[in-house]
Every structure is written in structure tokens, then in C-alpha cells.
Amino acid sequence: MKKIFLLLVAALFLTCLCGCTIYVKTDTAASLTNTEGDGEIERQTETLVGDIVPEFQMLNLDSNTVDLRKTKGPYLLFITQIKCPTCEKVLPLIENLKGDGENIISIYRKDSKREILETYEKYELNPDLSTILSGIEDPERNTVIEDFDLTSVPTLLFVDESNIVQWIHQGDVTNAELRDMASQYMH
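and the corresponding C-alpha cells:
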């Protein structure tokens, strides 16, 4: 059991370091147990594929509340942060897809409105402030990591019209892969 735990930790570390891709296709849960220290610490990692989107509300950059349960699908939820090289690489691909008329909500869990807008300017992108959420601008509701049980960013969640998560993608993605996933899960 300890070897499996160490392999999983090493895989997560390499994923974060290298921007590798993890595809999550099942709705099974995995439990990791660490018995070192004061007692047993258990971390339950559940995928969301097949589950309804967690209750989640946060202010967008227009200072209006976005409630994911009330968002009309299908849509793509892009969970990201600016100081992540893989996230920066994926951002223009996401914005191009949004420019093609796809419904995309971006959540920046650690970045301010100013930092987000500077990043969009750097890549010469036109932000739709109503579809961008900032954890720094709404700290009391910045629970995206807990609500979605994330292990890395960027994370893409494809959600259908019934607010059921259909696919989760973590890490780097090419334009072709993103468009293929969008055509499969957003139409």
C-alpha cells in the first residue's frame, strides 16, 4: 500500500512539474491513507464524471454572482491560475474556443482582477468579464479546490445541459485535442 501511495504522489508531482495530462474517465473513488504522524490522515479523491456540478457560486469580474447550478449547459469550466506555465499556454486556446461561440467559464483561484486583465492584455485577448471568476476578488467563496477536489491546474470540466460533468481533463492540451473534446461534449 505504501508503494502505491508513493507512486501516486510521484505521478502527481511529475504532472504538476511537467504539465503532463491526466485523463479521468471513471466515477470511482480512490482512498489514500497516511498513517505517519499523530494519527491516520485519509484523503478521499473522487472524480466528478457523471456527477452533478457541485454547488458553487463566485463573483465574476463584473461583480455579479455566477451560480454554476443555474448556468445553462453545455459549458466548459476552465480552472486555472496565472503563475502556471501550462495554464498560460492553454489560455489562448480556451479563448479561441470561446470566440467560436462556446460557453466557457474561467475560474482563477489565486489571481486578482488586475493580474487577470494584464494576462489577457499580454496575449492580446479580449476578456468577457461576465465569464471570468476570481477567487481573490471573492475570498469568502473561493472554495474551488475543495468543491471540485482538484489535484492540479489547469483543469477542464465539460458539463452537459443537465449540469452533469461529462469529462475531466487536467494538464496540457493541444488545440486539436481541445476542439475534439468540445465537439464531443459540448454539442
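(Above: one complete record from the training split.) The beta strands are 22-24, 29-34, 41-46, 57-59, 65-67, 75-80, 104-108, 132-134, 155-159, 165-170.
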